[in-house]
Give the backbone structure.
Amino acid sequence: MGKKTRDYWNPLFGSIKPRKVSFLTPPATRRLLTQPCLDFPLDYTQDTLDEIVRLTAGQPYLVQLIGQNLVAQFNHQVFEAGQDPNRPIAMADLQAVIQSPEFFQDGGAYFTGIWRQAEDSSLAGQPEILFQLCQRDLSVSELVEATGLAHQQVEAALATLISHDVIHATAAGRYAFTVELMRRWVQRRLRRILGKKMP
Protein backbone atom coordinates (compact mmCIF):
# COMPACT_ATOMS: atom_id res chain seq x y z
CA MET A 1 0.00 0.00 0.00
CA GLY A 2 2.83 2.40 0.91
CA LYS A 3 4.52 1.77 -2.43
CA LYS A 4 1.28 2.43 -4.31
CA THR A 5 0.81 5.67 -2.43
CA ARG A 6 4.33 6.81 -3.30
CA ASP A 7 3.78 5.83 -6.94
CA TYR A 8 0.52 7.79 -6.98
CA TRP A 9 1.93 11.00 -5.50
CA ASN A 10 5.08 11.07 -7.62
CA PRO A 11 3.34 11.68 -10.99
CA LEU A 12 0.77 13.92 -9.33
CA PHE A 13 3.40 16.39 -8.13
CA GLY A 14 5.95 15.73 -10.87
CA SER A 15 4.48 18.44 -13.10
CA ILE A 16 4.18 21.08 -10.37
CA LYS A 17 6.48 24.06 -10.72
CA PRO A 18 7.63 25.63 -7.47
CA ARG A 19 6.70 29.28 -7.09
CA LYS A 20 8.29 31.71 -4.73
CA VAL A 21 5.74 33.38 -2.47
CA SER A 22 6.80 36.96 -2.12
CA PHE A 23 6.23 39.45 0.67
CA LEU A 24 3.29 41.83 0.54
CA THR A 25 3.96 45.41 -0.49
CA PRO A 26 3.35 48.07 2.19
CA PRO A 27 0.03 49.12 0.57
CA ALA A 28 -1.08 45.47 0.33
CA THR A 29 -0.12 44.89 3.97
CA ARG A 30 -2.18 47.88 5.08
CA ARG A 31 -5.11 46.75 2.93
CA LEU A 32 -5.02 43.21 4.36
CA LEU A 33 -5.18 44.63 7.89
CA THR A 34 -7.82 47.30 7.31
CA GLN A 35 -9.98 45.44 4.76
CA PRO A 36 -9.64 41.67 5.35
CA CYS A 37 -13.29 41.37 4.33
CA LEU A 38 -16.11 43.59 3.16
CA ASP A 39 -17.44 46.01 5.78
CA PHE A 40 -14.60 45.32 8.24
CA PRO A 41 -15.57 47.56 11.18
CA LEU A 42 -12.21 48.26 12.85
CA ASP A 43 -9.78 51.09 12.18
CA TYR A 44 -6.05 51.39 12.87
CA THR A 45 -4.01 54.48 13.62
CA GLN A 46 -1.55 55.26 10.83
CA ASP A 47 1.51 54.81 13.06
CA THR A 48 0.27 51.34 14.04
CA LEU A 49 -0.04 50.29 10.41
CA ASP A 50 3.41 51.71 9.66
CA GLU A 51 4.91 49.78 12.57
CA ILE A 52 3.32 46.50 11.45
CA VAL A 53 4.84 47.04 8.00
CA ARG A 54 8.24 47.69 9.61
CA LEU A 55 8.05 44.67 11.93
CA THR A 56 6.89 42.17 9.29
CA ALA A 57 8.29 43.60 6.03
CA GLY A 58 5.01 42.29 4.61
CA GLN A 59 5.68 38.62 5.46
CA PRO A 60 2.13 37.26 4.88
CA TYR A 61 1.99 34.76 7.74
CA LEU A 62 3.19 37.32 10.30
CA VAL A 63 0.87 40.05 9.01
CA GLN A 64 -2.07 37.66 9.37
CA LEU A 65 -0.91 36.55 12.83
CA ILE A 66 -0.63 40.11 14.11
CA GLY A 67 -3.99 41.07 12.59
CA GLN A 68 -5.72 38.05 14.11
CA ASN A 69 -4.25 38.72 17.55
CA LEU A 70 -5.12 42.42 17.41
CA VAL A 71 -8.75 41.66 16.53
CA ALA A 72 -9.01 39.01 19.28
CA GLN A 73 -7.50 41.41 21.81
CA PHE A 74 -9.82 44.24 20.69
CA ASN A 75 -12.89 41.99 21.01
CA HIS A 76 -11.83 40.99 24.51
CA GLN A 77 -11.33 44.63 25.53
CA VAL A 78 -14.68 45.73 24.12
CA PHE A 79 -16.97 42.82 24.95
CA GLU A 80 -15.44 41.66 28.23
CA ALA A 81 -13.66 44.73 29.62
CA GLY A 82 -16.23 47.28 28.43
CA GLN A 83 -13.83 49.55 26.53
CA ASP A 84 -14.91 51.99 23.81
CA PRO A 85 -15.79 50.03 20.63
CA ASN A 86 -15.31 53.10 18.42
CA ARG A 87 -11.64 53.64 19.16
CA PRO A 88 -9.03 52.62 16.57
CA ILE A 89 -6.45 49.91 17.16
CA ALA A 90 -3.41 51.85 18.35
CA MET A 91 0.31 51.39 18.96
CA ALA A 92 -0.26 50.31 22.57
CA ASP A 93 -2.46 47.47 21.31
CA LEU A 94 0.22 46.34 18.89
CA GLN A 95 2.94 46.44 21.55
CA ALA A 96 0.76 44.38 23.90
CA VAL A 97 0.37 41.72 21.19
CA ILE A 98 4.00 41.40 20.12
CA GLN A 99 5.34 41.59 23.68
CA SER A 100 3.06 38.84 24.96
CA PRO A 101 4.84 35.52 25.65
CA GLU A 102 2.35 33.74 23.39
CA PHE A 103 3.17 35.75 20.27
CA PHE A 104 6.47 34.07 19.40
CA GLN A 105 4.99 30.69 20.35
CA ASP A 106 2.02 31.26 18.04
CA GLY A 107 4.43 32.26 15.27
CA GLY A 108 6.60 29.21 15.89
CA ALA A 109 5.79 27.64 12.52
CA TYR A 110 7.46 30.57 10.76
CA PHE A 111 10.30 31.31 13.18
CA THR A 112 11.43 27.74 13.84
CA GLY A 113 10.97 26.85 10.17
CA ILE A 114 13.44 29.55 9.13
CA TRP A 115 15.85 28.56 11.90
CA ARG A 116 15.78 24.84 11.11
CA GLN A 117 16.33 25.57 7.44
CA ALA A 118 19.48 27.50 8.41
CA GLU A 119 20.63 24.80 10.85
CA ASP A 120 20.05 21.92 8.44
CA SER A 121 21.58 23.57 5.39
CA SER A 122 24.60 21.96 3.77
CA LEU A 123 26.19 25.42 3.78
CA ALA A 124 27.74 25.84 7.22
CA GLY A 125 27.68 29.01 9.26
CA GLN A 126 24.15 30.29 8.78
CA PRO A 127 23.11 30.10 12.46
CA GLU A 128 26.38 31.78 13.50
CA ILE A 129 25.77 34.58 11.01
CA LEU A 130 22.18 35.05 12.20
CA PHE A 131 23.34 35.21 15.82
CA GLN A 132 25.73 38.02 14.86
CA LEU A 133 23.21 39.91 12.74
CA CYS A 134 20.54 39.85 15.45
CA GLN A 135 22.80 42.18 17.42
CA ARG A 136 23.66 44.66 14.63
CA ASP A 137 24.07 44.99 10.89
CA LEU A 138 27.48 43.76 9.72
CA SER A 139 29.63 43.68 6.58
CA VAL A 140 31.18 40.52 5.12
CA SER A 141 34.57 41.27 6.67
CA GLU A 142 32.97 41.95 10.05
CA LEU A 143 31.06 38.66 9.84
CA VAL A 144 34.26 36.79 8.97
CA GLU A 145 35.91 38.26 12.06
CA ALA A 146 32.91 37.74 14.35
CA THR A 147 32.16 34.15 13.33
CA GLY A 148 35.62 32.79 12.56
CA LEU A 149 34.30 31.39 9.28
CA ALA A 150 36.26 31.61 6.05
CA HIS A 151 35.40 34.46 3.69
CA GLN A 152 33.99 32.04 1.10
CA GLN A 153 31.84 30.32 3.73
CA VAL A 154 30.38 33.64 4.84
CA GLU A 155 29.61 34.71 1.28
CA ALA A 156 27.97 31.37 0.43
CA ALA A 157 25.89 31.42 3.62
CA LEU A 158 24.84 35.03 3.00
CA ALA A 159 23.77 34.19 -0.56
CA THR A 160 21.57 31.36 0.74
CA LEU A 161 20.03 33.49 3.48
CA ILE A 162 19.31 36.25 0.97
CA SER A 163 17.71 33.80 -1.48
CA HIS A 164 15.33 32.71 1.30
CA ASP A 165 14.47 36.33 2.22
CA VAL A 166 15.94 35.95 5.71
CA ILE A 167 18.43 38.79 5.29
CA HIS A 168 19.16 41.54 2.78
CA ALA A 169 22.04 43.80 1.84
CA THR A 170 21.68 47.38 3.07
CA ALA A 171 22.61 50.51 1.15
CA ALA A 172 25.59 50.87 3.51
CA GLY A 173 27.08 47.55 2.32
CA ARG A 174 26.10 45.61 5.42
CA TYR A 175 23.67 42.76 5.98
CA ALA A 176 20.51 42.90 8.07
CA PHE A 177 17.44 40.83 8.84
CA THR A 178 14.63 41.30 6.34
CA VAL A 179 11.95 40.75 8.99
CA GLU A 180 12.43 42.61 12.27
CA LEU A 181 10.34 40.06 14.17
CA MET A 182 12.64 37.27 12.97
CA ARG A 183 15.61 39.26 14.27
CA ARG A 184 13.91 39.54 17.67
CA TRP A 185 13.17 35.81 17.73
CA VAL A 186 16.84 34.98 17.02
CA GLN A 187 17.89 37.49 19.67
CA ARG A 188 15.62 35.79 22.21
CA ARG A 189 17.10 32.42 21.24
CA LEU A 190 20.63 33.75 21.66
CA ARG A 191 19.80 35.14 25.10
CA ARG A 192 18.41 31.77 26.19
CA ILE A 193 21.58 30.01 25.02
CA LEU A 194 23.85 32.54 26.71
CA GLY A 195 21.76 32.36 29.86
CA LYS A 196 22.21 28.58 30.04
CA LYS A 197 25.97 28.98 29.69
CA MET A 198 26.21 31.56 32.46
CA PRO A 199 27.18 30.23 35.92
About this structure: Confidence is low (pLDDT under 50) at residues 1-5.
